[in-house]
Amino acid sequence: MTDAATSPSGFDTATLSDMLRVAGSPDFDRWREQIHRTGGCSHPIHLTGWTLTRDKTTGETLHRYSTETEPGGRLRIACGNRRASRCPACAWTYAGDTYHLIRAGLAGDSTRDIPAAVREHPRVFLTLTAPSFGPVHNRPGAHPCHCGTRHNEDDQTLGTPLDPDSYDYTAAVLFNNHAGQLWQRFTTRLRREIAATAGLSQRELRAVARISYGKVAEFQKRGAVHFHAVVRIDGPDGPDSPPPPWVTTDRLTDAIRAAATHAYTTVTVPAAGAHPACRLRWGAQLDVRPVKVFGDGSDITEQAVASYIAKYATKAAETTGSLDRRIGNREALLLLGVPDHTRRLVEACLDLDLVYPERRLSAWAHMLGFRGHFSTKSRQYSTTLTELRQTRADYRAAQERTARGLDDIAPDTVLVLTSWTYAGQGHTPGEAALAATIARDIHLNRETAREALRDQLDLEGTGA
């Protein structure tokens, strides 16, 4: 028996009615084209306005566009949100850009003036973790958890404290809040360690070698942030120059281990109110592995590293059960069913905000205190996300010029006038359901094309 408020298709009757309205409208094809161009964006931005292209010399109007003829009088463009929980379509694009950014720094990219010779530079894949704030439920290999249970991979208790009352929630959120500073101190100390191995000062080191990196933050199940990073050593001019012969992968690895455990690589949070001073540092679990062009079963490859970092660039604290937007009040935690452990972390942020107001813990409570960028890189590691987006925009602009018959006209002889106004964001319920279908079709087509390309490369590799 079908619920009165739900149609046989699985949609509630209000959503189904709206879907029929949208699909039956005379401009549905144009609406679908707009949504397809956004990649199936879940929360497109609506714009109203016009653009006019004129010949500077003759004053002739070459092209005119206005949103007056668009569905609802609006143009819909992608929201660009990186979070997969908010917009899977735009997050897919962001992950792809991050993949190319990281891989360019590992394998080179001729279109970005990054030489393939960077493959010969010392480079490692590094993971820095948080220290322990109390024992938690885990899966320690073949042995059962300390609670005596062998947890499944999808067990909701994984990462939660064995004894919540003794878990140091204060230190946990303060660590997240200061993780960016800990990373900064780590990179500073790393330069000093590498210089020291050669008997050089930091200034002398800059004259012969430079350290570059690209990193991403990931939340563990216990709600503590940790960093994955590619660390590479170049010559004095960045990726265009080779590092000195004495800089090897082993020496880089040793310097990383020394820097991560050095007393300098700590942050002291001063005492305030009833909270004593505490000293924050990286955890004992440190993983440093060389990056290989091709794997041998034990080493990780360029593609694997780039894929791993790109995967986590679209995720945040919502993987722990937290919200993916700012929290207005404590009542929201209960109303939205936030898990107990995550709720305690959020509440610790709200409490500590009164003690350390300069740290803005309340504003970042939904991130469990973490206030840094999830994906960052040093200046000379590789290209930038801005450059990648501009390349995509230039490609689309070239397509538009071709479609309008403007290829034969020099760009500097054209005057473009525009006027755009923000007119809202998002979908109606019916539009959202249809847009999700479009997004799934786009994703399926991409996966099919990717499988076909992989099969072709496999055939070429076997000489078939």
Automatic annotation (TrEMBL):
<dbReference type="InterPro" id="IPR046828">
    <property type="entry name" value="RepSA"/>
</dbReference>
<dbReference type="InterPro" id="IPR048241">
    <property type="entry name" value="RepSA_streptomyces"/>
</dbReference>
<dbReference type="Pfam" id="PF20199">
    <property type="entry name" value="RepSA"/>
</dbReference>
<protein>
    <submittedName>
        <fullName>Replication initiation protein</fullName>
    </submittedName>
</protein>
